[in-house]
Amino acid sequence: MNTDSKPLTIIEHFNDLVDPRIKDRCDHKLIDIIFIAVCAVISGADGCTDMEEFGIAKETWLRQFLELPNGIPSHDTFNRVLARLDPKEFQRCFLNWVQALAQISDGELVAIDGKVLRRSHNRRAEQAAINLVSAWARSNRLTLAQVKVAETSNEITAVPELLRLLCLKGCIVTVDALNCQKEIATEIRAQGADYVLALKGNHGHLHEDVVNFFRAVREERTLNYEISRHREVDGEHGRIETRQYWQVNLPGHLRGSNEWQDLQSLAMVEATREVNGKVSCEQRYYLSSLAVDGRRIAEAIRGHWGIENSCHWILDVVFREDDSRVRVGYAAENLALIRRAALSLLAQDKTVKRGIKTKRLKAALDEGYLLKILTT
């Protein structure tokens, strides 16, 4: 190990991670295992066997930063450690690392959404697939934290737990219709953040009143309301999509609206899609603590889908997360956090104008680039 090397941020923040193993029977240091696992996943590894092969191929380079007293850990060692490592402890170190990587600024859009690890189920053990709820910062393209949804519960109980892990003051938090809940709105406001909540029919009377109110707004049957409009048009490959946004200050007659913490405005977007001459139209509705500003609400609504397009989709297609059969102990949850860390680090790099798949290949081939990713 080169003691003159400057400590890497990852080593600094994961060095105090609690080791779940019996000390007298450990051949490999925990930080060595974590560091190799993260580097391997950045460089294209999908599982523990790939981590071992990466370590063997890069052992000389790894010894610049790690002691490796007994060489490279085996794939079984990676598997056992990831399965036993307390995910809350791992999350604690991850949060500290994330805060060192990027400063979340006022107005940052933070999208909350769930994702199922589809092949993490075990029918023989009657173990359901793991569902994780994540927070994703749009501007920084950074996963801030994740929480596992309890098998006997749903995302609604996991989201407040996730929010309490974060520092969201000055941010705008967006959630889908499932998590459009009064308790979640209250928790977001308690953090000093604003919210934009997708509203659907699961809030029957309120949804009905909002739909009727916007019908009146569009037909110009309302008076003395602050109304802001915004319009966007884009398209490619024969598709044209037009989105029209309306945002209005909260009317006083909506049933149950006073039960939502600091609710200030309502929003509606009408999306019209034309594909090969066929036209479809969809209306979506939102509750928000934001003041009326059509352009700002449009950015928040559109930006929410970044967690799907720039995070979940890449995890599935590039990192092959849905194909992973890792499922013993905490391994699936911990490996999911490593993937999100790897994706966040790769997304931070602006020097290589390529997609995440190509960046992973470059990291595998170019040790200088891999080091740059780790020190971004």
Termini separation (Å)?
Answer: 22 Å
Radius of gyration over C-alpha positions, nearest whole angstrom: 23 Å
How many helices? The count is 14
Task: Determine the strand fraction and express it as a percent band.
Answer: 15-25%
Low-confidence stretches: 3-7
Account of the 3D structure:
There is one protein chain. This protein has 2 domains: 9-85 and 330-374, no CATH class; 101-313, no CATH class. It is elongated and about 75 Å long. By secondary structure, the protein is α+β, with helices and mostly antiparallel strands. A hairpin with a 2-residue loop joins strand 8 (265-275) and strand 9 (278-288). The chain contains 14 helices and 9 strands.
